[in-house]
Amino acid sequence: MAKKEKNEWFDWIKALLLALGLAFIVRMFLFSPIVVDGPSMLPTLEDRDQMIVNKLTYHLKEPDRFDIVVFHASAQKDFIKRVIGLPGEHVEVKGETLYIDGEAVEEPFLEEQKDNIRPYQTLTNDFSLENLPGGYEVIPDGHVLVLGDNRGNSTDSRMLGVISMDEIVGEASLVYWPLDRMQFVGE
């Protein structure tokens, strides 16, 4: 009887260790939670929204324009922003219009904000890639340009410069908390 009880405890310990090991692998290499900190992605994401970051996505493919990504802004802080410019592209904003390689590009996620702008107010101040830190003419290989959706209150590539793909943690696409905001986000 004692041996059977000992084997049962051993089986429970093995199952628990296996579950902890799987949870560790999933958390380290596949998915992890993040909490949005601040208003830089309003109205798409709200302060304190809790999201899942897919860490695997960019090991399989390059980011697409308008993906929402989490990246290491510093050793202590991760930021969440939207990919606007891709490697080899020239980016500028003039008169509230985004231009990629001289062609106007719609930003559907900003339409509501643009509709609510008062006269003499701007959502996105004019800028050109050359005027950003680094002074690039085109975005270098292995880098992206990111902006927050709340352009007037966002620390993004306009201050940080282009972001190395090595600094990107993953794609954030699912808000899971609060429950009334549960949604897939993106373009």
TrEMBL record:
The chain crosses the membrane at residues 12-36. It is a single-pass type II membrane protein. InterPro entries: LexA/Signal_pep-like_sf, Pept_S26A_signal_pept_1, Pept_S26A_signal_pept_1_CS, Pept_S26A_signal_pept_1_Lys-AS, Peptidase_S26. Keywords: Hydrolase, Membrane, Protease, Transmembrane, Transmembrane helix. The keyword Transmembrane helix applies. It catalyses: Cleavage of hydrophobic, N-terminal signal or leader sequences from secreted and periplasmic proteins. It is found in: Cell membrane; Membrane. Residues 10-177 form the Peptidase S26 domain. GO terms for cellular component: plasma membrane. The active site is at S40, K81. One of its GO terms (biological process) is signal peptide processing. The keyword Membrane applies. NCBIfam families: sigpep_I_bact. Belongs to the peptidase S26 family. This is Signal peptidase I. The lineage of its organism: Bacteria, Bacillati, Bacillota, Bacilli, Bacillales.
